[in-house]
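Lab channel / #folding
Pinned by the channel admin:
"Please post every new chain as: sequence first, then the structure tokens as a reply. Keep commentary short and put observations after the output so the thread stays searchable."

First post following the new format, from NK:
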Amino acid sequence: LTGTPGGYNSNVAEASVAQGGRFSFMTYNWYAARSIFGGNTWVYMSPFAGFADFCCDQVAIYDPARDLYIWLRMGSPNASGVNRFRLSVSERNAFQSTFWNYDFYPTNVNAAWTNEWWDYPHMAVGADYLYISWNIFSQAGLWQRSVMLRFPLDALAAATGFSYNYM
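Reply from TO:
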């Protein structure tokens, strides 16, 4: 993979890689790429596609037990300083850039978290759950808390609704 898509260069790349079999998926702050040929050739994917308020942080991870690629993207804060994150999950056994999406806001997790925004995401896959950690900041940019979310992987794989936990 050489060069970057025009206008999406950054000195801060914050790269992540998800890899399973011959499929690979890389994310950087402002662009993403996938390979369906063992990393020999790559195609750029726009993190803005279908997510107009995409900002900058994104992370990808692979769940080998369910053959799922999971793509987390962060949105820009709105006028109230609130942003959303989008969790995109690939179809099983079909990494051809087809994803279903779940959107979350701080107030979805806790109704008291108004005028706050997510930043600095990290993901990990366990036997049954996807774990996502975030730092949450006030509208003024002051750190408020760190949060860990726990999502059921079987529900994500089935593209169904689910409940989740946080701490």
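NK: The mean pLDDT is 87.
TO: also worth noting, The first strand starts at residue 16 and ends at 20.
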